[in-house]
Amino acid sequence: xxxxxxxxxxxxxxxxxxxxxxxxxWMLFDWSAQPYYTLVQTFLFAPYFANAVVQNSTCGTLxxxxxxxxxxxxxxxxxxxxxxxxxxxxxxxxxxxxxxxRGARKPWMAVLSLFFxxxxxxxxxxxxxxPTETLAIVLGGFIIATLCAxxxxxxxxSIMSGLVPKDELGRLSGTGWAVGYFGGLVSLxxxxxxxxxxxxxxxxxxxxxxxxxxxxx
Length: 217
Prior knowledge:
The chain is elongated, with a radius of gyration of 19 Å. It has one domain: Growth Hormone, Chain: A. The chain contains 8 helices and no strands. By secondary structure, the chain is mainly α.
């Protein structure tokens, strides 16, 4: 539906409002992607990784002696986020040009989603006191998941420009953001209830659960 709408727009040069089903489908991408930023990057998994999974002895001389308990974990997480950001900065312009060139967008998003889901699954390995090799796998999964999430956003933003006339783009974009943040809040509320029932250690399971959430959109 989205593809046929954009193709018609490209032929006529005038972008007409896509059917409601196509616009809702586009907005549900933010619904499924936002819990990753809410749970993994911000509120739950990142603090769990820094405070419970990584021991300061893992970093050796990378951190100062006598540093706070979470110093090593925060350092490793920060380095991983920097690597992900660098890769995003390098790849986004090229994939953005490809997307804006009216190439196939949804197949790219489907492939990136598969890598995103697999990468989230590695977070299950993050157990307190995990060996260095396991930490490397978890951080690698975090890098890949972050990269895929941002690159999917590149293609999603490109799709948006063909769904409504130019003067309605702001409204559609804002509605998509709102739907996404609502999805993030729903996921955070569900996890908060789950933690009250199961305990802090169960945070490591939320990588796999986020992957399942992503596939149900």
